[in-house]
Amino acid sequence: MHPILLQFGSVTIRSYGLMAAVGFLLGCLMIGVNRKYAKMSSDQASTSLFVAMIAGIVGARIFYVVQFFDKYRDHLWRIVRIDQGGLVFYGGFILAILALIVYCRMQKLDLVRVLDVYTPAIAIAHACGRIGCFLNGCCYGRPTALGIGVHYPPGSEAALRYPEQALHPVQLYEAAEMLVVWGVFFQLVRHTKRGVAMSCYLALYGVLRFVNELFRGDNPKAFDLFTPAQLIGLVIIPLGIGLAIYFARKHDEPQDADLSN
């Protein structure tokens, strides 16, 4: 756990903020490389990314603060300190999608193909974000007897909740999964029909997140059964499967056949 990586006088570089920035830059690179598959100009690609990023950060923070409001009840000013961690992926994902819908309508872009292009970018950015979570000490796991368990320093939130216990490095599990997803979907978006990459990502991430939540030690459960992320997963898994079947059966040509831009 290294929430602060470097400090120069009054200037502090926090691990979570740095990894979020790295994830954003890698996401920019992915979208720049694949933008032609959605017929986006370089300006449209960069603007859409900026719109999605702002909406994603706001949505992710809102979901986190609502879910863990007790942390902020007496310190409302801390709500804006996103550099210290505290983002919920699904919240950012939902608000970013809504922002992209508006932007694509304004620019007359094909929303589905834009979302296809965004899938590998989201995966690589997410992987970096989870590494940041691990370094920051948030989104920690449940106790484990396996040799890969990690101990958090005394006084940290994880150590206070699970004193002297080794915890699953669930943040690194998800980071590794997202790196694999990035590699697969970087190719998938180039060689499949319109909408297939986006749909498969929805279903696959829903499954992965549902399983990962079984190893999380920080999330509350709704009705003592599922975490909020698992409940969302139960919605997007069948949605993603249904959309994948729908787009796979359509007679659109594969993405790599449509490179007029």
TrEMBL record:
<dbReference type="GO" id="GO:0005886">
    <property type="term" value="C:plasma membrane"/>
</dbReference>
<feature type="transmembrane region" description="Helical">
    <location>
        <begin position="195"/>
        <end position="211"/>
    </location>
</feature>
<keyword id="KW-1003">Cell membrane</keyword>
<keyword id="KW-0472">Membrane</keyword>
<feature type="binding site">
    <location>
        <position position="130"/>
    </location>
    <ligand>
        <name>a 1,2-diacyl-sn-glycero-3-phospho-(1'-sn-glycerol)</name>
    </ligand>
</feature>
<dbReference type="GO" id="GO:0042158">
    <property type="term" value="P:lipoprotein biosynthetic process"/>
</dbReference>
<keyword id="KW-0449">Lipoprotein</keyword>
<comment type="similarity">
    <text>Belongs to the Lgt family.</text>
</comment>
<feature type="transmembrane region" description="Helical">
    <location>
        <begin position="15"/>
        <end position="33"/>
    </location>
</feature>
<keyword id="KW-0808">Transferase</keyword>
<comment type="pathway">
    <text>Protein modification; lipoprotein biosynthesis (diacylglyceryl transfer).</text>
</comment>
<feature type="transmembrane region" description="Helical">
    <location>
        <begin position="86"/>
        <end position="104"/>
    </location>
</feature>
<feature type="transmembrane region" description="Helical">
    <location>
        <begin position="231"/>
        <end position="248"/>
    </location>
</feature>
<dbReference type="InterPro" id="IPR001640">
    <property type="entry name" value="Lgt"/>
</dbReference>
<keyword id="KW-1133">Transmembrane helix</keyword>
<protein>
    <recommendedName>
        <fullName>Phosphatidylglycerol--prolipoprotein diacylglyceryl transferase</fullName>
        <ecNumber>2.5.1.145</ecNumber>
    </recommendedName>
</protein>
<dbReference type="GO" id="GO:0008961">
    <property type="term" value="F:phosphatidylglycerol-prolipoprotein diacylglyceryl transferase activity"/>
</dbReference>
<comment type="function">
    <text>Catalyzes the transfer of the diacylglyceryl group from phosphatidylglycerol to the sulfhydryl group of the N-terminal cysteine of a prolipoprotein, the first step in the formation of mature lipoproteins.</text>
</comment>
<keyword id="KW-0812">Transmembrane</keyword>
<feature type="transmembrane region" description="Helical">
    <location>
        <begin position="45"/>
        <end position="66"/>
    </location>
</feature>
<dbReference type="Pfam" id="PF01790">
    <property type="entry name" value="LGT"/>
</dbReference>
